[in-house]
Specification:
Strand order of the largest sheet: 19-20-18-17-21-22-23
Largest sheet: 7 strands, mixed
CATH superfamily of one domain: ATPase, nucleotide binding domain
Number of helices: 19
CATH topology of one domain: Nucleotidyltransferase, domain 5
CATH class of one domain: Alpha Beta
Length: 505
């Protein structure tokens, strides 16, 4: 029996998860895996003078509370690793101390950082060098908005999860998965892009050494062992980017045709949460002009695999509506909102979830209503109608994105695996199957923490391969299959939805 600790940091909350693997003697043919949440804590951004920051000291203090709880279990912990969202970063001074503030990707500073960077280097050059989709929140544009003097004072830049691994181990290194989200990493050379770093006048010394996904960094620092009661357990860099970890836990079957071309996969994944990330797993990046124009991204996963995907705004829309209604005295839980949406009339109104107005927090129901009025549709007013509008629109955006993947690769996707918290939303899963007209396999829910745990076991040699890890998921955890129920209503809805994009050109 093996025990690993996964630190899973998300935009809404952080968690310390205990993962227990058993029965791996025959390499997962009949093994089991269980996840136990030891500590959950809110991740509440700080607002100061119109700026938005992450409260890193508070998050680390909460993490230490979780580590003390883990120590109280008196279990032999094999290792620990952190995963988090991408693009955001921590700065450390030359003495290794955290430099505040740590900016939130929704901080408005990227509004000046993006044009400042593009004045020095073109979009085309950035994509050719990195293969990353253009988003104003990317690290490259955040750094372009930084005070140059602050960057010169810094000793090291580490993305969020890698920064926490540094706080755990004292080893400052960046794994390829989160580095690849920065739009300052070259997926062909597998190195930081000195071309872009020099073009933007960024100090090269702040960019840390890169290590493969699945690297032993060191052990828990003596100070933390004294403070928490844990032993000096190994600290690993698995896939520090949470999507990379989640995709590692997708229970996809290998293609039955052993001669199949790996550049033309027959399955896709959707990591569904605050953000929706839809894509496929490939052996090499796609750096074509068509890929750039469609705004797809090439991120690195375990074993130097490439996740060709698109970042799509996801259940953030539902989360923000729920928060708005709670502030007005109507505190719905997610299950209640889904029930209300299921009872609401279908296809009354649609939105383009990719519209930039929906990226910023606050007043989400009002923003949705305004979009509907501007496009000649009745504005939904009741919570059920608003959520129905969001979920149907997300399903249509997933459909549009999948068709673009098929266009890029010249292949036909036969099934979609939805993992993450959004896989619990049966209504959205069914709507997605109906819109895509292919089966949807939902689960596991805890894909990110599970992938983190599995990759730790793989790094330490307890699992022989990623295929074996995925076989363990298929064996040990149930998934639900949603069969498509296509109709003429969906054909009409897709036509209505496409008009939003035609009007935006």
């Amino acid at each position: 029996m093996l025990h690993h600790l996964a630190i899973d940091l998300g935009a809404e909350s952080g968690r310390l998860i205990l993962g227990t693997l058993d029965g791996l003697g025959d390499f997962a043919a009949s093994g089991s895996v269980t996840l136990t949440e030891l500590h959950r804590f809110p991740n509440t951004p700080l607002k100061h003078n119109g700026s938005l920051h992450w409260n890193i000291p508070q998050l680390f203090a909460e993490l230490k509370t979780g580590l003390r709880r883990a120590a109280e279990l008196k279990l032999p912990i094999a290792s620990i690793s952190t995963d988090s969202w991408g693009v955001d970063y921590l700065l450390f001074d030359p003495a290794g101390e955290l430099m505040s503030p740590t900016f939130h990707y929704r901080d408005p500073r990227h509004q000046r950082g993006e044009p400042a960077a593009l004045a020095k280097v073109s979009r085309e050059t950035i994509f050719a060098e990195t293969g990353i989709q253009h988003m104003a929140i990317n690290t490259i544009f955040q750094l372009a908005a930084e005070d140059p003097a602050r960057l010169q004072r810094a000793g090291r830049l580490l993305h969020i999860a890698d920064g926490f691994n540094y706080l755990l181990s004292g080893v400052a290194a960046q794994d390829h998965s989160n580095a690849s989200t920065s739009q300052l990493y070259n997926p062909v050379t597998r190195a930081w892009s000195r071309r872009l770093i020099d073009a933007l006048d960024l100090p090269p010394h702040i960019f840390p050494p890169l290590v493969p996904c699945g690297t032993r960094l060191g052990t828990l620092t003596p100070a933390l062992t004294r403070e928490t009661g844990l032993a000096e357990i190994p600290v690993l860099a698995t896939c520090s980017h949470d999507t990379g970890a989640a995709v590692a836990a997708v229970p996809a079957q290998p293609n039955a045709d052993i001669s199949a071309d790996p550049t033309r996969p027959d399955w896709a994944y959707l990591s569904s949460g605050t953000w929706s990330l839809m894509g496929v797993e490939l052996p090499a990046p796609v750096l074509t002009e068509n890929c750039r124009q469609l705004n797809f991204t090439n991120e690195i996963g375990h074993g130097n695999s490439v996740r060709l995907l698109k970042n799509i705004i996801g259940l953030w829309l539902v989360q923000e509506c729920r928060r708005d209604w709670a502030q007005r005295g109507h505190d719905f839980d997610y299950a209640a909102l889904t029930q209300l949406a299921a009872a609401a009339p279908p296809f009354t109104a649609l939105i383009n979830p990719a519209d930039p107005r929906f990226l910023a927090p606050d007043d989400m129901p009002a923003k949705i209503a305004a979009f509907c009025r501007e496009t000649g549709q009745p504005a939904p007013t009741e919570p059920g109608a608003v959520i129905r509008c969001i979920l149907e629109s997300l399903a249509l955006l997933y459909c549009r994105t999948l068709r673009q993947i098929e266009q890029l690769l010249g292949t036909r996707i036969q099934r979609l695996h939805i993992v993450g918290g959004g896989s619990k939303n049966a209504l959205l899963n069914q709507l997605t199957a109906d819109a895509l007209e292919i089966p949807v396999h939902a689960g596991p829910v805890e894909a990110t923490a599970l992938g983190n745990i599995l990759l730790q076991s793989l790094t330490l040699g307890h699992l022989p391969s990623l295929a074996a890890a995925r076989a363990l998921v298929r064996t040990a955890l149930a998934t639900q299959i949603f069969t498509p129920q296509p109709s003429a209503d969906w054909v009409s809805a897709r036509a209505r939805f496409e008009k939003f994009f035609a009007a935006a050109k």
